[in-house]
Amino acid sequence: MEATKVLDAKGFACPMPIIKTKKAIGELETGQVLEVHTTDKGAKNDLTAWAKSGGHEVLKYEEENSVLTFWIKKG
Known about the structure:
The protein is 29% helix and 35% strand. With 75 residues, the protein is of the alpha+beta class.
């Protein structure tokens, strides 16, 4: 999946992945996609809920080798 920007939030614990994602998505235009990499297991629920509450859309989610990757479309 093509992302406009990639955010490496690996190694950070909650709430840092959300804070970094919020800052990064603020730099994008509506409709652009942010790819987020994190190792925080709580991010699956946290980022999904955050995206929904902010009017953004999680297009795809993958987990591989303890790294969670999200593709979030800015709403």
